[in-house]
Write a structure and sequence with these properties.
The chain has about 180 residues and is an alpha/beta fold. The chain has 5 helices and 7 strands. Helix 3 (about 90-100) links the parallel strand 4 and strand 5 (about 100-110).
Length: about 180
């Protein structure tokens, strides 16, 4: 996922950087800024940075993903690793990601996202009560992102695939055209 987000280099924003788990996976050709709502999580990421050289990491900031302080059109890529299912307002999150994204930019999402139909959808519905009883959810579906894309015609879904080997996680890549629709 990080390699997909950083494949063309450029300015990347990672939303929900947490403890910095994904930081080493970005290529050195990018410049990365990470945000997280939790200062405690970011302090762990900063500790990682102090122990290892991650020259591509420019900044880590405490920030609300639905109300970012970055100027409009600041980033070539917005990366959302394992965070979209944790933010209650998907549309507000994607609206804010779109605001800070440059023309021709992309949003890369990886998370536990269920398909809208098929056997995996039925399986997730079957185990949902069990997961909810232990504080987890299997209720986030690709439809939430697809609905946002339908409301934002300058974006399109260019990739939607299960990640091998188990297919438990999905990769969604949204691309913005330079012509606002």
């Amino acid at each position: 996922m990080a390699s997909r987000a950083g494949e063309n280099g450029g300015e990347i924003l990672e939303v929900g950087v947490g403890t910095g788990l994904v930081l080493p996976l970005y290529p050195s050709t990018c410049t990365l800024t990470g945000i997280d709502i939790s200062d405690d999580m970011l302090s762990k990421a900063r500790q990682k940075l102090s122990r290892k050289s991650f020259a591509h990491v420019k900044d880590l900031q405490v920030m609300d993903a639905c109300n970012m302080s970055f100027p409009t059109e600041s980033f070539d890529v917005v990366s959302l690793p394992f965070v979209i299912t944790l933010i209650p307002d998907t549309h507000a999150l994607l609206d804010e990601c779109a605001r800070v994204l440059k023309p021709n930019g992309k949003i890369v999402i990886v998370s536990r996202i269920n398909e809208n139909a098929g056997i995996m959808r039925r399986l997730s519905q079957a185990v949902s009560p069990v997961l909810q009883s232990v504080g987890l959810s299997s209720s986030f579906h690709t439809e939430a992102v697809e609905a946002w894309v339908r409301q934002n015609p300058s974006f399109r879904v260019v990739e939607n695939c299960a990640i091998p080997p188990t297919g438990f996680f999905r990769l969604l890549q949204l691309s913005r055209s330079c012509l606002e629709g």
